[in-house]
Amino acid sequence: MNSELFVYNTLTQKKEKFQALNAPFVGMYVCGPTVYGEAHLGHARPAISFDLIFRYLQHLNYKVRYVRNITDVGHLENDADEGEDKIAKKAKLENLEPMEIAQHYTDSYHHNMDALNIKRPSIEPRASGHIIEQIIMIEKILQNGFAYESNGSVYFDIEKYRKTENYGKLSGRILDDLQTNTRDLDGQGEKRKPFDFALWKKASPEHIMKWPSPWSVGFPGWHLECSAMGNKYLGEVFDIHGGGMDLLFPHHECEIAQSKAANGIDAVRYWLHNNMITINGQKMGKSLGNFITLNEIFSGHHKLLEQAFSPMTIRFFILQSHYRSTLDFSNDALKAAEKGLKRLLDTYEKINRIKPQNTSTTNVNILKDKCYGAMNDDFNSPIVIANLFEAAKIINQCIDNKEALSHEDIETIKDIFDIFMFQILGLLPDNQNHNQNSADEFIQIILELRKEAKLRKDFETSDKIRERLAAAKIGIKDTKEGTEWEFIN
């Protein structure tokens, strides 16, 4: 197995050989959700993308400390510096405590992630639980001269920072363009420059979530939490920082600046970003009427959906595209993913039907090498899936006596599925497959009842059973040997 892993570093915009700072330990930080609403399709892609990376690093025998934060304070409505806190706003609307809102939607997020077979991170810190760490980091930035206090708030001084550092090096943004395009917002008179961002905000009297600090009773800026918690749990320098492309600017750009201003060194060695999901070619958004929560997808209760889709169908659909590619969500694409996943799972169940031969007519070790090669090439999951389909083709050809495999190669092809489909891609059979034995027994009972109805010449009941089974996506076929059945699309 070639274990040389190459990853695409957003900072350098090229593929680089991955070398852990303190091998075999890997520190990985991924921006998690802001918990003020139900998890939606946009949450699924980064969760699945970085779960894939987490799983593969572990498979390569790295000891991974995976930190994924929960944003439960400080994420404001307008450019993260002005407006109302999103969680506090939701709490007012529902007449609940903000932490009730945060807990409710955190629980809901975990439920959806579990359904998608997302492994829990090693540590899942909350912004509200790390106010002290954020205050300490602000004090260091102030001491180093890269921030200033204004009316009880503290802002990062980008003009001062860029005299020695390249602000914009991650996103490629040019500061003069930022100044031209920055909107006038309430409270920006406190800033020296409109593009300066808040490290600490003085709370208005009606603001719910606030804490004492050396500057005012207030709350931390949104960008600060990841820098502070990454530093606490992974150290001043760690290996991987990930998130969606939508966070590249301003969030991750601000993180780079904060950490360098506080500690004097770049905190992250490899920046990884997953691309966005569109819906029928459009960006997802509530105003466009195409905003779909994961619960709506799993239940099928949304005007854009023709049917319900299982969590594993969603996972497979997302993994069919490289994490850095855009991905368009549609009913047709989901149905194709559902069909493709079923084909792979059905074929896997057939492996034990292959009769071993003395020699093999095909080299399955090449497929295994190709799967590792794809994963080592910036976690190229669609190429892995293409090779799984090639393995499925070989299995079917062996059953049809068009190819032959030795006992050793049968174990190898089973190993390919076990390692790549289940361990690394994290795919699982749907519930119908989890309960296959129970389903077999239950359907056999129904078929016996149908057989008895036919013997009584009660063809109305017999036909009704067939129709009800078909409605439940179970097809039956009467043969000389008896009645066969299968799940149908």
Quick synopsis:
With 489 residues, the chain is α/β, with parallel strands linked by helices.
Q: Helix coverage percent of residues?
A: 40-55%
Beta percentage is 15-25%
Strand tally: 17
Number of helices: 17
Terminal CA distance: 38 Å
Judging by the overall fold, what is the CATH architecture of the largest domain?
A: 3-Layer(aba) Sandwich
Mean pLDDT: 90
- Write down the domain tally: 3
Task: Return the CATH class of the largest domain.
Answer: Alpha Beta
Low-confidence stretches: 180-186, 431-437
Biggest beta-sheet profile: 4 strands, parallel
Looking at the structure, the CATH topology of the largest domain is Rossmann fold
Class inferred from helices and paired strands: alpha/beta
Indicate the overall shape. globular
Sequence of strands across the biggest β-sheet: 4-3-11-12
Question: Rounded to an integer, what's the Rg over CA atoms?
Answer: 27 Å
CATH superfamily of the largest domain: HUPs
